[in-house]
Amino acid sequence: MIEIRNLVKKFGPSIAVNDLTLTVARGQFFGFLGPNGAGKTTTIKTLTGLYRPTSGSCAVNGFDVHAEPVSAKRSFGYVPDQPFLYDKLTGREYLHFIGGLFRVRGDELQARIEQYTERFEMSEFLDRLAEEYSQGMRQRIALVGALVHDPTVLIIDEPLLGLDPRSSWLVKEFLKEKAAAGLTIFMSTHLLRVVEELCNRIAIVKKGQIVYEEVLDASEKHHGTLEKTFLEITR
Amino acid sequence: MHDLRTILGAKAVMVIRYVTDIGVHGLTRTLATIAIFNGVAIGMFLLTRNFTWFLVFHIGVGIEPLHRLAGVVLYAFFVSANFMSLILSFATLYTAREVEFLQSLPVPHTHLFLLRMGENVITSTGVLTLLGIAGVLGYGAVFHLAWYQYALMMFGVMVPLVVTAGILGVLLLMILIHLAGKVGTRWMLAIALPAYTASFFLYYWATNPVAIIHGAVASAHGGALFMPNLNQPFVAWLPHAQAASALQAIVQRNAAVAAQSIAALIGGALLLGVVAVMTGSRLYYSTWLLVRELRSVQEHGHRLHRFRLLDLQKRLTPRPNAEAVLKRDILQFIRDPVQRIHALMMAVLVGVMVFSGVTFELPPMQAVPRALSWITIFLFDGFVITSIALRFVFPAVSLEGNAFWCVRTSPISLSRLYWMKFFLWVPIILLPAEALVICTLPAVQAPQQLTVIGTLAMLCAVVGLVSLNLGAGAHFATLREDNPVKVAASQGASVTFLLSLLYLLGIAAMLATPVVRTLAGGPTPSTQHVLFTALMIVAAVSAVVTVFAHIIGIHSLRKDF
Question: Which single residue of A138, A190, B350, B398 could bond B432 by disulfide (Cβ 3.0 to 4.6 Å)?
Answer without folding.
Answer: B350
